[in-house]
Every structure is written in structure tokens, then in C-alpha cells.
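An instance noted here:
***
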Amino acid sequence: MASPQTQRSPELSSSEDEMDVDEEPERRSSVAETANASQNGNSRAVIFRDAANWLSHIRSLKETDVIILLTPVVIPISTDPTDQSDPFEPLGRALARRHSRVRQVPYTTRNGITSTHLGFIKRGHVIILCFALRPGQRIPLEYGDVTFAVSDNKPCIIVVCCSPIDNDIAIPFPTIIQTAGYSPPTLEATAALIFGEQESVSSDPTESLLKDPRQPRLWPVEQWNESRDMLSVLDLWNQNTNQRFSLDQHTLASLLRRPGYAKHYVVRETSNGEVLGICATYLAYVDKEGEKLIASLAILLVRSTHRQLGIGLSLHSHAVAQLKKTRGVIRLQFGSTFPRILYGPPTDIQFNEEWFRRRGWQLNKDIPGQGQAVYDLVLDFSNWRAINDTSSKLAFKPCTQEEMTTVLEMVEDNSTKQARMGWFDQYTSLMNGPNVKDIILGTEEEKLVAVALTYTPSCGSAIPSNLPWAGRIGVDVGGVTCICINPPNTSITTTSGLLSACVKNLQSQGMRKMFMDGVSASDLEPLKQLGFEIWATYRDVWKDT
């Protein structure tokens, strides 16, 4: 049965665009054509890299395994004006002669890898992703990134079709084949090379560089071991951050040690076990039902001597895949909620924004979740400028245990409406404990209208262990966090009154300054007028799952 012809339409909206090449086509290439292609294949297709040894997997497939072939929709190269067939169809047929189950799914440059393709990738056992490049054209690396992200560590082979073959091209994937264009003989040679029927020989003098062990590859990812890895991770942290965010071993260990709520992953140097990169992840509940979770990609660090080798990609792909498997996750944050190691990427620490953009993170837009500025502030009590409103009927006092039910109802409502992830958990942690008094309440005619959490470095609650920076600034620095005011657009008078009560509470415990975290750009200027100063600026980066 002949396989259907691929449609070169601008949209790939359904699986009807898939080419089923399970069965032999009516018209096969002759033996002479195949032999000729293989004989001349050395100059047509070369293995640029196979660091993950994935080509050996494709050469030992089970009969029931499926190869997913993702090919670009390109201009036909046939000299016959009536030939409108897909130029990559010969590759699908050549692969099908060597393995019975091949699914060819075209993609367009405009739409890239869509949800349709992702469905095929998840069902396949080996993925072959083809690029067709004009001279000087940039490789759309994001297509490869998303393919790797959902492939769940299945073998992924990148085929780059360009003429002439460019050995200097930068492709950060473990298994790459380069071909001299996408003519039928070249694609036949490519299939033969993939299945090990011919050797990859290149006359290029830079061939020895292709076997450089420091080329990018997929690295094995392990769960971190605190007793083994702590000192190495501390060194890695302090190498990658500035003095503002320096941490001692005890504090960093406390932040990472969250049984049941955290999983951290490392890549090691195989010779000595040194940690070359770490990705720290957390889960936090959003609501009291415990059904919705926010997942945090809190830290992604790679040792400066080992960058551009695929370590960050290996960690990122593994961590995100694991988080997405967790039932109930509704949001993925780049940064962390609680514990709040970093709210998001700090603006004063350099990192490769383009690398993260290719992996779906937007960092340069002034909207929530896509790079909007968020601030940590510090108030020196000597600079506090409270607003006195003699007509106000507001009253402020510490919370009691009997009032916690009402407080939690208000916090949950406020958190849900304003997407304040993880706040409910922080208030709940003080329930039935001595630190319930650290919650400051604001009432108007006996109705609860405002609440805030205060803490000191030695108060004994879980709050300072979740928010380490006040204590790192100084032993006389307390903090206020998770401020809820109803209605949220209440005048600055309510905010000033609530903060005044927090200042008095912390002053009574010997504090001289107050730290406030996660302040939005819209709240910044009013707070600066009250005496606060910026301590750090982050980008708010997240995406709903």
C-alpha cells in the first residue's frame, strides 16, 4: 500500500498530516540506487556527535517500537514541476525499509512543534528531528528543546540538512547527524548511517574536534545527597551569586532540607563525584484543600568551568519533566515561593536569558509571570514615616488562637483572588502554636480588614527559615510578609497603620530594621514614601501548566 502524500499546508492542526510509512511503498528505490547512495554516503552524511550513544539504541529496536520522524515543510527540490511530493518522504521510506514502524509528522516553520507533535513524541520510542537550513540560517533550537523536554529521556537524534556541511555550527544536543542537503540519495545515505550500514567518514580537518569530550551531551542526573554534596553545592552557590546573596552552610542546608516538599537533582563529575550542576525544586500547597500545588524551579546552577556542555539542559529537562508528572501542579515558577531562596532571577546577576527563553520562560515583559519587576525592601525604623489619620476607625493588635479560623478564611480568599501562591501555608504553619501572636490583625468596627505575618531571626517559627534574607542582613532585622488587605485597593492609610503595628511589634523584640519581600511595582512608590528602600530586584517568572 502506498503511503499518503504529505500535505504542505501552512497549518498542522491534526494527525491527518501524519505519514504512515509502516508498509513498503509500491515504488522502491532500486538496489543499484541504494548501493550507490551508500557508496557515496561518506560525503553526504556524517555523525557530528553521538555523546549519548543513542544510535546504538535505534540499531537494536524491538519490532513493535515506533520511530517518530519530525520533518520540516520545505520547498520541493525536484526538477519535475508536477512533482509536489514532500522532499523528506524518501527519508521516511528509507527508514521504513529498515524498521517496519515509522511515523513521519511534518512541521511548519511558522507553527513549529505543536501539541500534535508532542502527542506523537510521547507515544514514540525513538525521535528523529530534522532541520533544513539555508546557508547562514540559525537553527531553531527551541524545537529541539521542547522535543527533549517531553521525550522522557528517549533517544532523540537531530538531523541537520545543510549544504555545504558546516562543522562549526553550534548545536547543544547529544546526538547529531549532518547531511549535505536533503536530496533523495542524501536522505538514503542518512538512513543507512543511522542504522549503522556505513561508517561516518569526513575529510574535514576539524573532524578530531568533533570527538572532543567537552562537546555538549546529555548527562546522567541523580538526586542530591546532603551529606555528600552539601559543601560542593555551597561552593557552587557562592560562585554563581554575588555578595548580597551569600549563604553559610547551615542556612543553605536548612533551605534545601524540606522532606516531602523538595527534590533536588545534580550532575556529577564521573571521576571524583564533584557536583558540576544542581537544580533545586519545591512543591507548595495553594489552598486549604491541598489539591492544588505550585512547583518551583528554585535554583539552576552550573559550575563556570563546565558550561555549554549540556549540564544545564540535562538538569532542566529532567526536573521540569518530574514536576509536571506531579498530580495537582497548576503553576511552574522560575524562582521559589516558600522557602524563598530567590523570588525569581535577580536583575543584578548575569545569566543566559536566551537559553531560558528557548525553554519557554519569558523574562523581559512588564507583565506578571513574564519578567515584571518584583522587589525586596528594607526599612530602617529611624526612617519610618507613618501616616496619621485621626479620623480612621482602624485598630491593630496581635492575633489570638480563637481568631485564626477567620484569619485563614481571609488569607485563602485573598490568595485565590490575587494569586498569592503559598501564603495560606505560611499562616497555617502558625496554627495551634505560640507564634500565632506574630500575626498582626487590622480591624474596622470589629471586622477583619488586614493581616500580616511578622518574624525575627530567632522567633522560633518556620517563617524565618522560609525567608532567610532578613537574618542574613543582620541579627537585628525582622520581617513582615504575606500582607492581606480587604478590599485590596484600600487607601495607603490602612497599609501604613498595619505596618506601624508591625514596626512596634518588632521594635519590642529588639529589632532595628524590617524586611519586606515580594513587593510589586505598583506598591513600590507608596512604600518608598513611608521610608522603605530597595534591597533587591527580581523578575517575576512563571507559567501555568
